[in-house]
Amino acid sequence: MLMTVQDFETAARMRIDPVHADFIAGGAGDEITVRANEEAFRRLRLLPRVLRGSAERALDISVLGSRARTPVLLSPTAFHKLVDEEGEAATARAAAAAGAIMIVSMASTVAVEDIAAAAREAGEHGDPPPLWFQLYIQPDLGFTEALVRRATDAGCAALVVTVDSPVRGAHERDLRNGFLDLPPGLRCEHMVDPREGGRVHPIAMSPVISWEHIDWLRGTTSLPILLKGALHPEDARLAVRHGVDGLLLSNHGGRQLDTVPATVELLPEIAAAVAGRIPIVLDGGVRRGTDVVKALALGACAVGIGRPVMWALAAGGEKGVRRLLELFREELDHALALCGASGVRGLPPDLVRAPAWGPASAHTEREGGA
Ligand SMILES: Cc1cc2nc3c(=O)[nH]c(=O)nc-3n(C[C@H](O)[C@H](O)[C@H](O)COP(=O)(O)O)c2cc1C
Ligand SMILES: CCCCCCC(=O)C(=O)O
């Protein structure tokens, strides 16, 4: 029975090519940050209040004009057709049914128009939250602008610009496995260039992308823009100054620069830097309802999940992702009830106790003896 995120991973591994499982699980370098994300959540403690709960908890959110029935959104992940023949269309149907925002990856194997159609189909009897679109700004700005227009026309309600990838992270598992390209028959649908008779461009990750490009994008679109992957508080302040509407506080699930801190560890500092001027969504290592509570109490308005969605899709297709999102909902509601909270909004930071991070705890660990 699929009762935890770990169960989905175990089930997925029984069904998919180990090379693809490595692509999903893996990170950059020694994968120190991959592990740090989950470990940081485990180290945090919840300190509940008593005699103040409510019969039902409100889990709905509204962020940058997008309303959702859950604060757990689907972070952008590439190549869903690697693990399911319907790929991102199946994921979108599950997200729409759960009332969850899905961020469509620029590197998706289904086109945004078809993903949007799938979401509408599943949300037919309700009102599904809109999709958001993730973008790597390409040095070819004409191509980038056309893609932004395409995502906008498809109904995407926000742009998530990934800025932690001036070059691609060193995914050593993929290098060892020789997994350097998509298998025949699959392609990044958004990289098909109509100007060049349908040639498929590689996604450029370019170190020349700068704040000027963010200014350019700001002038090109009226959609809300979130930056994904800014980790330094000074960059968070700069984002506000450059007219960015929100942050997706993310270290790319440990797949870009290895040894950067866990995102939840950075959250209080980033929240202080933006001081409520723009909303913060956090991803990286969110595996439990209690993790969601911790992130929201420390200043995020929502959280994203990456690998769990890929495992669920691989384990059970659309039904698998539906079950995963239901599981997060059940766990979140349960954790909130136990915390004496009436919903996901306005959770106070004193709900979370953090051990001393940094040199003091490192010293204690050494003394404990390894
Ligand atoms: C298989 C995989 C593919 C990813 N593809 C993208 C992508 O196309 N664009 C992007 O900005 N981030 C991408 N990410 C990073 C996720 O958006 C997210 O930041 C990360 O997975 C969150 O951490 P988690 O996996 O621990 O939940 C990818 C992550 C994984 C695991
Ligand atoms: C060169 C293809 C880039 C796909 C981007 C996928 C991604 O971000 C990841 O972490 O993997």
UniProtKB/TrEMBL annotation:
<dbReference type="InterPro" id="IPR013785">
    <property type="entry name" value="Aldolase_TIM"/>
</dbReference>
<feature type="binding site">
    <location>
        <position position="250"/>
    </location>
    <ligand>
        <name>FMN</name>
    </ligand>
</feature>
<dbReference type="GO" id="GO:0016614">
    <property type="term" value="F:oxidoreductase activity, acting on CH-OH group of donors"/>
</dbReference>
<feature type="binding site">
    <location>
        <begin position="283"/>
        <end position="287"/>
    </location>
    <ligand>
        <name>FMN</name>
    </ligand>
</feature>
<feature type="binding site">
    <location>
        <position position="228"/>
    </location>
    <ligand>
        <name>FMN</name>
    </ligand>
</feature>
<feature type="binding site">
    <location>
        <position position="105"/>
    </location>
    <ligand>
        <name>FMN</name>
    </ligand>
</feature>
<protein>
    <submittedName>
        <fullName>FMN-dependent alpha-hydroxy acid dehydrogenase</fullName>
    </submittedName>
</protein>
<dbReference type="Pfam" id="PF01070">
    <property type="entry name" value="FMN_dh"/>
</dbReference>
<feature type="binding site">
    <location>
        <position position="136"/>
    </location>
    <ligand>
        <name>glyoxylate</name>
    </ligand>
</feature>
<feature type="binding site">
    <location>
        <begin position="306"/>
        <end position="307"/>
    </location>
    <ligand>
        <name>FMN</name>
    </ligand>
</feature>
<dbReference type="InterPro" id="IPR037396">
    <property type="entry name" value="FMN_HAD"/>
</dbReference>
<feature type="binding site">
    <location>
        <position position="255"/>
    </location>
    <ligand>
        <name>glyoxylate</name>
    </ligand>
</feature>
<feature type="binding site">
    <location>
        <position position="252"/>
    </location>
    <ligand>
        <name>glyoxylate</name>
    </ligand>
</feature>
<feature type="active site" description="Proton acceptor">
    <location>
        <position position="252"/>
    </location>
</feature>
<dbReference type="InterPro" id="IPR000262">
    <property type="entry name" value="FMN-dep_DH"/>
</dbReference>
<dbReference type="InterPro" id="IPR012133">
    <property type="entry name" value="Alpha-hydoxy_acid_DH_FMN"/>
</dbReference>
<dbReference type="InterPro" id="IPR008259">
    <property type="entry name" value="FMN_hydac_DH_AS"/>
</dbReference>
<keyword id="KW-0560">Oxidoreductase</keyword>
<feature type="binding site">
    <location>
        <position position="162"/>
    </location>
    <ligand>
        <name>FMN</name>
    </ligand>
</feature>
<keyword id="KW-0285">Flavoprotein</keyword>
<keyword id="KW-0288">FMN</keyword>
<feature type="domain" description="FMN hydroxy acid dehydrogenase">
    <location>
        <begin position="1"/>
        <end position="357"/>
    </location>
</feature>
<dbReference type="GO" id="GO:0010181">
    <property type="term" value="F:FMN binding"/>
</dbReference>
<feature type="binding site">
    <location>
        <position position="134"/>
    </location>
    <ligand>
        <name>FMN</name>
    </ligand>
</feature>
<feature type="binding site">
    <location>
        <begin position="76"/>
        <end position="78"/>
    </location>
    <ligand>
        <name>FMN</name>
    </ligand>
</feature>
<comment type="similarity">
    <text>Belongs to the FMN-dependent alpha-hydroxy acid dehydrogenase family.</text>
</comment>
